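Aim 2 progress update. The chain analyzed this quarter is reproduced below.
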Amino acid sequence: MDDEVMDARGSDMRTKTLRYRAPSLHAADMFAQTGLEQLQAIIDGRVPAPPISSHIGLHFVSVADGDVVLTALPDESLYNPIGSVHGGFAATLLDSACGCAVHTTLPTGVGYTTLDLKVSFLRPITTETGMVTAHGWVTRSGRRAAFAEADIRDADGRVLATASSTCLIMPTQ
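Predicted structure tokens:
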């Protein structure tokens, strides 16, 4: 590549610094609590948010039994080649909303993992969209599996994307 092209591309270079705390430092303490207590501890600032929060600007707003609300502010570092926020942002936010809704229902010493996630992208997300809100809720919870749904909405309440998920429930040890 010639210097002129490199200079032109480099002139608008931006950086994004991610800061997070090592999750392993709090893992033992977290699993001594119920899932709802764990997520409330994050909201209250008693334990740090998971590292993925730093990547997509995710913030926990509220948690209740089987229900969670999260927000995120998409920025241009999340753009794809066609000039909108990459679908992976919405998928990650929806997976977090579904998973965390399931998380709120767990007793101590029990964890989960996503088995499947079906996402429907309904409207584009750009930096002009502004803050988005993801709402996740459990539709059915069993001993070995839980089912959840979630949506992402803009500030005007328009639905941008939806998801349904199945989570495997399992002991953490």
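The chain is about 25% helix and 30% strand. Residues 1-7 have pLDDT under 50 and may be disordered. These observations will guide the mutagenesis experiments scheduled for the next reporting period.
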